[in-house]
Amino acid sequence: MNDNCIFCKIVNKDIETEFVYEDDDIVVFKDINSQAPIHLLFIPKKHIETLNDISDEDSVLLSKMLMKIRDVAKSRGIAEDGYRVVVNCNRNAGQEVFHLHAHLLGGRGFSWPPG
Ligand code: 5GP
Ligand code: ZN
After folding, report:
1. Mean pLDDT for the chain overall
2. Is the CB of 96 under 6 A from ligand 1?
3. What range defines the domain where residue 53 resides?
4. Which residue has better confidence, 7 or 115?
């Protein structure tokens, strides 16, 4: 728990947020500023600031996050058409919240290369 972190506050339920999914390790909720018909955030409960800060001890946690993305994409009906998973890291990627999170975006087409 980091007292200044908005996602830690969401995990802690200090900020009321409807969870799509929660278990002992991860939480899934809708992005407040949705960029696609489906735009969900997958976050570890553990405060990890960026992808640069993951360590070997996080490997099971990160695997669980990816598996949950797979499951939710399937249950939301976007697995076959396809979807995009984004992890922004630091300034050049435009990371705004420094608590590791993966965006799951789906329900429309996405261009490549990204902007
Ligand atoms: P980043 O640019 O760091 O990868 O993305 C942070 C994301 O968190 C943004 O898409 C933003 O809309 C979302 N976000 C920021 N604050 C909140 C919040 O309080 N609640 C929710 N549900 N999403 C948030
Ligand atoms: Zn945090």
Report:
1. 97
2. yes
3. 6-106
4. 7
Total domains in the chain come to 1
- Determine, yes or no, domain membership for 111: no
Ligand 2: centre distance to CA 111 (Å)? 30
99 in active site: no
What residue type is 111 in one-letter code?
S
Query: Does residue 61 contact residue 46 with C-beta atoms inside 8 Å?
Result: yes
Angle at 30 between CA 26 and CA 32, to 5 degrees: 125
- 46 inside domain: yes
Candidate of 8, 31, 99 to mutate for ligand 1, largest count of ligand atoms within 8 Å of Cβ = 31
pLDDT the model gives residue 115: 87
Q: How far is the CA of 40 from the centre of ligand 1 (A)?
A: 10
* 72 vs 77: CA distance, rounded Å: 8
> pLDDT tens for residues 75-98?
999 999 999 999 999 999 999 999
